[in-house]
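Replying to the earlier thread about multi-chain prediction with a worked example.

Input:
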Amino acid sequence: MLILGIETSCDETAVGVVEDGRLLRSNVIASQAALHAVHGGVVPELASRQHIRDMQPTLNRALSDAEVTLEDVDAVAVTHGPGLAGALISGVNTAKALAMTLNVPLLGVNHLEGHIYAAWLAAASDAAPADEPGFPLACLVASGGHTDLILMEGHGDYRLVGRTRDDAAGEAFDKAARVLGLGFPGGPEIQKAAESLATFDEDDENHSPREEQAAAALPRAWMRDTLDFSFSGVKTALLHRAQDVGLYPPPEMADPDADRLVARLAHQFQESLVDVMTAKLLAMAERYHARGLILGGGVTANARLRQRVLADSPLPAVIPPPVLCTDNGAMIAAGAFYQYQRGDVADMTLDVDPSLPFGQPA
Ligand code: KG4
Ligand code: ZN
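Result:
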């Protein structure tokens, strides 16, 4: 069964073609990152309009990369929430038009469920075993809008056992990058700055007091009695630290030590978030006797997080390649395949739901 998956919930116009829920036939992503970067964050109005411009060429490329035509498509799937209303609408309307003209089933997929199903695509790749991961699975979905711990007890069976009480992890990365004068989106920039620390450390004998200050650990919000997260504290701590070492507000005079101090702060910030996300995911897996882990969402593209989870987990972990962690259409097509098996098919009344919930509360 060939499913076309469309994703436009935020700032990526993305279309993927997936066969039987697991075989990736194509995955085309038109990123709007450059468009929004000058504004330091996603501007919803600009996003909506750019989706309209990018949809047609992205769709055409996804079909040609998969070496299929529209007539070969057996169902059309689309993210209908959560996300930006105006952005979601272009995907949903495109999907409805296609399903109607092709006379094939229409599937409305939850964006967060899509992030989890990227793991099934990864499992279909050469790197992973051909078997499906065994249930129950402990899933961490960390993106620009969510940081959720989801217990998946079967296809379509999700329990929300932990979530952020304030900022999402991706949002925290994006804000931290802004404080440090790095680009947008912030996650990859923080990662790059943190990785650059290794190049500085070589000739690093005598630390100045300022550098000592920058190199000290930032706080972790463990909140020991819960699987919930909180990232606003470390974000504020980073801001104060940046002020203390003279990085914020950005100095008017060129500062020869700036890159090095930014690298130290980026490293400490990343360590704080990675520590907490890794520990809570593993604690959840133990508490609910999970048989495996799944990582999904843009933040799980983070190299340090991936490395820590693989190093610390006693359980097998499926971590999709970074391009399938950030928003894409293939993950929507993968999730839709299992949804179709359950008979959970939409009709022409399908609407966007910007705050579509996901998972039963624990
Ligand atoms: O899932 P996603 O592509 O879109 C949403 O559903 O929000 O996630 C985007 C988020 C952004 O906040 C971005 O900074 C973050 O994922 N991100 C990363 C990395 N790559 C993307 N965060 C940390 N490290 C990365 N390498
Ligand atoms: Zn996402």
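Residues 10, 143-145, 170, 173-174, 185-188, 191, 297-299, 301-302, 326-327 surround KG4 (ligand 1) (CB under 6 Å).

Feel free to reuse this layout for your own posts.
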